[in-house]
UniProtKB/TrEMBL annotation:
One of the record's GO cellular component terms: cytosol
Matching PANTHER family: DOPEY-RELATED (PTHR14042), PROTEIN DOPEY-1 (PTHR14042:SF22)
Keyword Iron-sulfur: no
Family affiliation: Belongs to the DOP1 family.
Gene Ontology BP annotations: Golgi to endosome transport; protein transport
Keyword list, A-Z: Protein transport, Transport
The species this protein was found in: Seriola lalandi dorsalis
UniProt cross-references to Pfam families, sorted A to Z: Dopey_N
Protein's name according to its UniProt entry: DOP1 N-terminal domain-containing protein
InterPro entries assigned to the protein according to its UniProt record, in alphabetical order: DOP1, DOP1_N
Signal peptide: none
């Protein structure tokens, strides 16, 4: 827990937020099938959205682990899409500076997903990379190898994602800037 979170603990509304996150995370423990995971993710999303004013996500290590578990290749694409929705909510809340600091927490589930993702999941995942990861610039460097290892094998030459991703990033020099760090 960092100094900012310790300071926030004096706020009773923040403590209620932490308790609500704990309660939402308990739902994952009682999940026995994929529909339960979607429900648990929905409850977590609601708690996060209702407390977005704090720009801090409590229990982020546990949340990162649960999200990574929800991206397991054996789970259906509906669970993956709901988990990606949760990632997006978190990334909006914490902003780029905190994302760069906590890159390892959230990337462990995201990076291996693309090669096993359903067609409906790939554009959402690539959108997360484009919107939240590439703008990190030099602060992405510690996770660059994982990002490239996850993205490159997942792109099949000739697919709609390959052409749009390569052309878009080469044209804007975004990916080249990241690779040339």
């Amino acid at each position: 827990m960092n100094a900012e979170e310790v300071e926030l603990l004096s706020d009773s509304k923040y403590r209620n937020y932490v308790a609500a996150v704990d309660k939402a995370l308990k739902n994952f423990e009682y999940s026995s099938e994929w529909a339960d995971l979607i429900s648990a993710l929905g409850k977590l999303n609601k708690v996060l959205q209702n407390n977005a004013k704090y720009q801090v996500v409590p229990k982020k290590l546990t949340i990162g682990k649960r999200l990574a578990q929800c991206l397991h290749p054996a789970l259906p694409s509906g669970v993956h899409r709901k988990a990606l929705e949760t990632y997006e909510i978190i990334f909006k809340i914490i902003g780029p500076k905190r994302l760069a600091k906590d890159l390892f927490l959230y990337s462990s589930g995201l990076f291996p997903l693309l090669s096993n993702a359903a067609m409906s999941v790939k554009p959402v995942l690539l959108g997360l990379y484009e919107t939240y990861y590439l703008p990190l610039g030099k602060t992405l460097k510690p996770g660059l190898q994982g990002l490239l290892t996850g993205v490159l094998p997942g792109l099949e030459e000739g697919s709609e994602y390959y052409d749009s991703l390569v052309c878009q990033y080469v044209d804007t020099n975004s990916l080249i800037c990241v690779i040339n760090m």
